Amino acid sequence: MNNRTLWLFFPFLLTGCSDYQWGWYVLDPSTEQGLTNIRFLIAGFNDTIQVSLLSMLFAMTIGLLVALPALSNSPILKGINRLYVEIIRSIPVLVLLLWVYYGMPTLLDVSLDHFWAGVIALTVAESAFMAEVFRGGIQAINRGQHEAAESLGLSYWQKMRLVILPQAFRQILPPLGNQFVYILKMSSLVSVIGLSDLTRRANELVVNEYLPLEIYTFLVLEYLVLILLVSQAVRWLEKRIAIPSH
Predict the structure, then answer these.
(1) Measuring CA to CA, which residue among 139, 226, 140, 123 is closest to residue 183?
(2) Domain limits of the chain?
(3) Which of 43, 47, 68, 182 is the most exposed place for a label (fewest CB within 10 A)?
(4) What confidence tens digit (pLDDT) does each residue in 151-207 have?
(5) How far apart are CA 42 and CA 202, in angstroms?
(6) 131, 121 in Cβ contact below 8 A?
């Protein structure tokens, strides 16, 4: 590849980057301004973690309830499950978030702040994926476990709570961890409705300082650290509850 081809193929390397004036002083912890900016950005962890944890817990609950009809012998219940899952999975998270924030208060005549709008939207969006995770995990349990529980005289709910779900949880822990990471990343979308999460605070600081690359680089590192910690916690939990091989 000659120099002319390189010039045509990578013009942004030769123009855009060379004109940018880096200003890492904006995040220099040795200065009062830099330390204030870092604290402002880090404070966004509170909303990001809260909205993600609540959405995960609610989505797991709804996802389990949605998954159970898919395991029945009723075509109607199975159809309801498929309809819910396919509709929710087809709606982009950002579109659902905007509809919940602007549409629900209008239709239901209720007051809904940006925090709970974010939780509701992420919960609904994630519940469809959780339903599929639970369905797959429960179906992976050997049929003999169901028969053994029934032979002990356990009711359907006792069987699920005491026998099936504890075993299924071991099966689905890795995908649950993946889905929590997904929620953490999707939580950045709540910034568009005004929630002061990590992304919103980064956007506000960019408007004030006019140094987007430095601030968004710090934002990338924030999410990277957060998600790496979550991944490590999930791996630790997997080892803790793993069934010994001997």
Answers:
(1) 123
(2) 26-241
(3) 43
(4) 888 888 888 888 888 888 888 888 999 999 999 999 999 999 989 999 999 999 999
(5) 10
(6) no
